[in-house]
Amino acid sequence: MDFAKIRKSNSFSVSIIIVFMVVVMCFFKRNYLSADNISALLKVLAVTTLVGVSQMISIASGGMNVSIGSVGAMAAILSGLLMQNLKVPVLLSILIGIGIGVLCGIINGLLIYRNGGVGVASFLTTLATNSVFIGIIYMITTGHGVSKIPDAFVAIGSSKIGPVPTSVLIVGVLITLVYFMFTYTSLGRQILAFGANPKAAELYGISRFKTILSVNIIASILAAIAGMLVVMRVGTAQPDIGSDWMLQSFAAPLIGGTRQAGGKVVVFGVILGALVLTIIENALVHLGVDVYWTELINGVVIIVIMAFDRLRSIKN
Amino acid sequence: MKKGKKFISIVSCVALAAGMMAGCKGGTDSSSSSSQTQDKTAYDQSVWKDVVEFGAVDGKTDKDYAFAGVFGAINSYSDPMQGAADIAAEELGIKATEFDAPKDWVQNDQNTILDGLIAKGIKGIYMMTSDPVAGNEQISKMTSSGVPIVCVGGSPSTPSKATLTLATDVYQAAYDGTINLIKAMGETGGVVGLCGAVTDTNTQSRMEAIQKACAEYPNVELIQIIGDIDESEASVTAIENILAAKGDQISGFISTCYYPSVALAKILSDERYSNVHAIGCDTDEAVLDGIKSGALDGTMSQNPWGQAYLATVTLKMLTDGWTYKADQDFLVDSGSFYITKDNADKVEQTQMEATMEMAKTWTDRFDAPAK
Question: Cross-referenced PROSITE patterns, in alphabetical order (chain B) (predicted)?
Fold first, then answer.
């Protein structure tokens, strides 16, 4: 790949933005690149990236999934309760958590398929299932967190191998698998083809049902793992897990270069998009921004970066 | 293909139901309603004996004493409320109370619950509004139809048609918590405040209290107040970020909301932060565990038990014909307590003792009904 092509890529421009942000922060805060801060950034980055990849898969198929947060919470709470109340072994609880993701994905997939497939149908359907999943969580927990999480479970995502948090390694493996799926498997290519033009894809023999079901199962598995990673990081399973994932789940893939209308993904671009979001959140605390301004600045910076990227792509 | 889809649907539903049952098993016990009793033993042993009448007064029936509590949202803060209300109901010889709350802090959802309770015959309600302004409209509607309202947990916007509000003086609790922190720090070092939604007037009061307490000590510096972090992930992220940014300046954290308190209990259990002090908020299990493990120095407990207990007594008195004196304050401080390792196992007992102190003079705030 020649440099001219790299220079025109979305990832290049986002990387420039990230470098600029880090340089500015280092200018204002000498200890910005301290080991503690890099560790704090990486832990947040891992979950944000996974949430972004989960949404990216839905976007790639021409849909969207607003129930990612509640699926993550379902997996986190139910696996936590199994460990706390029934003393289910850690690994089995993780598998059940993933199974809950599969189940939620099947429910979403079936309902989206029945309601027309992609676009607004997927939005409305997952909006409804989001409400159902949250309702189930509150019904089970009555608003209480699960606090007796075994140390062995927490250690899986909050330990370090060398300087790198294990949560980052877990997400690294998962995102690589997703990259291979989109690059080398027929399922990945079918999802992209379906996202680019569903009718044409069906004429070529791609099953609408199988594609929608697969997309939702994979997206929900990743959301379930993200939910459990949050428990590993926080140390308790709280019913509010995933409640603030909505913005980051869309912003990370879109900043990273995923096509809003579906049909094109930049898997590793999601990491860059998530890094932008993580740096903004981290920088607001480092700079001691007044509490009344943080939400506004957070939103404005994301909009400016997305607008900048859109202008660049129009120019290209 | 159709059979396959049907099979997947059935398996999905069965598995979801099984998961829910697994989650429910051994979960929190919410069955706290007690049966009504006409046994006067509890009354005879209570402070209300010969002050407030037992059971229905002349001209009233048991149905006139059907009371309910409605909190602003599902929240662990309200856990002791129904139990406390039922103890009051037992002491006063009235029906056991009901309790409900909407999922989120949405006034419209709470209104639906309130309208439903009144439709089924509830004659008096103690409640925390989901929204202090919009909730006041609903309070006006209910009181105009003859249902007395006592607010608990937090005050609606004033003026209000509610009889009174039993709540924590949030300014005083935050101030006391910060002073306790500063003393634990040896009256020197940097303080970080962790707060909830900055649009909430209670949060603004808490922030002012933290600033004032820090300003009173010349060797204490308020490093930063971080707001809008009453969520599990946001609070962990904010605390990790501030420790990474200014860890060398931080000697203590004061948390005025739930999730940052839980996050502090987890993060400060790391030996690296053994010299960092912290005061949490409320008495959730995770916070108390944090105190017992030494990650937190203590927590500022509120008094939801006393709020529900005294609110139920008040509803009984209002139904009996008592009236709240015009010269009494609308907002009654239900107290806040500093919980440390020493009294972490006696939270409810501490709340009950403080409540019973208030109960001794509670009827002084009211005019008795004409005989």
Answer: PROKAR_LIPOPROTEIN (PS51257)
